[in-house]
């Protein structure tokens, strides 16, 4: 029987104060990159901590490669970078990764070969000989990533893996995660950096107040609606309202840059299919406006996220 990499069935954690997770059911396939999204305090880290065996659920069940979560058999497949990472500041980076290798039961000869390679891959290199107390937050996050990969896991849980990194560091981590995907590893990514999730993940789940609101393929989410921008001349304040009434979709002006000396403006319309843009173009011309440019841009994941949680209550970090 072929098991999914992760299977959760009604998994719950009740802390007795309204926080935690409730009845989470989902599957993550082998080799998949899965993004787990939600506002602060939604319960994302609680869910991950249950899967990796750090806290016990109060309801439901879950397996990793068919093995119950929390068991040694399940943990053998896991690499984990927590959101709140702390490493012994008196040790060198190499010594920290070596300690994790010992905890994973890796043979000393294999660890000696693997650790320098890992430190290079995460961008630490020879600074692995420096003590952790001399590392920046970004360097410590890179070190945590090396620790998560030291046992060559089949499944990698990453809780905000690039939160402390600068743009170059984020790009490097992105490339490393792409490499891991090519190797067939499964990635479970908690992140507030929705651009990273959009670029890396196959599917996403959106969590709010401990419950899943939506699950779907990233490609489907990004193609739910299409945002169009039209640069027109001869625009009047009444034109946007008239166009909106005609096509049954909101059309509004947006403050995008126009060529110097031009009296043109940009209009924005969010449409359900491409046929509507042809009609909108003809309506613009029919009203005597000049159509200079038309641009198509897919709905981004952050826009989908904000739309999905708009109007909902959020527990937040202090609730």
CATH architecture tag of the largest domain? 3-Layer(aba) Sandwich
What is the quaternary state of this protein?
single chain
* Uncertain spans: none
Tell me the major beta sheet.
6 strands, mixed
Order of helices and strands: EEEHEEHEHHHEHEHEEHEHEEHEH
Overall number of strands = 14
How much beta, percentage-wise?
A: 25-35%
CATH class category of the largest domain: Alpha Beta
Backbone structural class: alpha/beta
On the 0-100 scale, what is the average pLDDT?
84
First and last CA, distance: 43 Å
**Percentage of helical residues?**
25-40%
Output the radius of gyration: 24 Å
Number of helices: 11
The CATH fourth-level homologous superfamily of the largest domain: P-loop containing nucleotide triphosphate hydrolases
Strand order of the largest sheet: 6-7-8-3-9-10
User: How many discrete structural domains?
Assistant: 2
Kindly identify the CATH topology of the largest domain: Rossmann fold
Shape: elongated
Q: Any overview of this molecule?
A:
The chain is built from eleven helices and 14 strands. The two termini are 43 Å apart. It is 35% helix and 27% strand. Strands 6-7-8-3-9-10 form a six-stranded mixed β-sheet, sandwiched between helices. The protein has a four-stranded antiparallel β-sheet with strand order 2-1-4-5. The chain has a four-stranded antiparallel β-sheet with strand order 12-13-11-14. It folds into two domains: 6-221, P-loop containing nucleotide triphosphate hydrolases (Rossmann fold), CATH 3.40.50; 226-298, ACT domain (Alpha-Beta Plaits), CATH 3.30.70. The chain has helices at 44-52, 72-75, 93-103, 108-121, 137-149, 167-182, 194-200, 218-222, 237-247, 275-286, 301-309, and strands at residues 6-14, 20-28, 33-37, 59-64, 67-68, 78-81, 155-159, 186-190, 203-208, 211-217, 226-233, 251-254, 265-271, 290-298. The longest helix is centred in the middle third of the chain and has 16 residues, at 167-182. The protein is an alpha/beta fold and 319 residues long.
